[in-house]
Amino acid sequence: MSCDLTIHHLRRSQSERIIWLCEELGIPYNLKCYDRQPATLQAPDEYRNLHWSGTSPIIQDGKVTLGETNAIFEYILAKYANGQLVLPVEHPQYADYVFWLHRANGTTQPGLVAMMFDRLRSDTDGDFGQKVVPTRLQSNFQAMEAQLGKFPFLAGDEFTAADCISVFSLTTLRMFIPFSLEQYPSIVRYLERIGQRDAYKRAMKRGDPDLEPALSAAAPKDPLW
Ligand SMILES: N[C@@H](CCC(=O)N[C@@H](CS)C(=O)NCC(=O)O)C(=O)O
Q1: Has residue 1 got a pLDDT over 60?
Q2: Which of 56, 68, 117, 120 to mutate for ligand 1's pocket (most ligand atoms within 8 Å of CB)?
Q3: Domain GST C-terminal spans what residues (predicted)?
């Protein structure tokens, strides 16, 4: 059967969850499998070239190429699930559903992956473990910069919850991990726009009245840690 949805599966990786999701939903999909590079266990170049993130999972659906597990879950569930596998907001256990839906990749896995990189740092010359995270972060900020160079907000012309969830990492979190945004002028202009939003001003005033939001390009001085 022909279909638009293709799952790019990096073997031994979390893209197995996308295959499983589609099997549970009983929806058609094409499957393309890739092996990790034997020496580094990284994705092969053919995989990396599919999406700037270069990490598994990645799907393609018509003209859309999408990375990031939870985004792919939301996309497939919203577009193809017809209500299957999703608890509606009226359900008494909706809060449990939404919590566990996001917990795995929001907390459990980052914690385990941090432990994995620590192990790599101590087991090897440290080179690999030390390079992977900064490289990924850099491509993340470069992609944000490109997006915000084209649009005022992350999802385009409209301010959305995607902005609400993303700004903390660019502002208050920098008080714990100071880094400069000087090389990202579009992100800096975006933060200026965010800082002018009445709701953001109200929120910061209510929650942290004695805090000057870290909205400028320079790395915050006097880190909290
Ligand atoms: N937060 C990302 C993490 C993606 C990720 O790190 N995937 C791993 C596989 S489990 C990967 O692609 N590793 C190979 C590589 O980095 O080259 C997501 O959930 O999509």
Answers
A1: no
A2: 56
A3: 90-224
Residues with CB under 6 A from ligand 1: 10, 13-14, 42-43, 55-57, 67-69, 105
Q: How remote is the CA of residue 56 from the centroid of ligand 1, in Å? A: 5
- The topology under which CATH files domain 5-81 is Glutaredoxin (3.40.30)
Question: Tens digits of per-residue pLDDT, 159-208?
Answer: 999 999 999 999 999 999 999 999 999 999 999 999 999 999 999 999 99
For ligand 1, the distance from its centroid to the CA atom of residue 212, given in whole angstroms, is 35
Ligand 1: distance of its center to the CA of 202 in Å? 37
Considering the entire predicted model, what is its pTM?
A: 0.92
Ligand 1 centroid from CA 141, angstroms: 16
Is the pLDDT at 128 greater than 70? The verdict is no
Class of the domain covering 93-207: mainly alpha
Domain coordinates in residue numbering, the chain: 5-81, 93-207
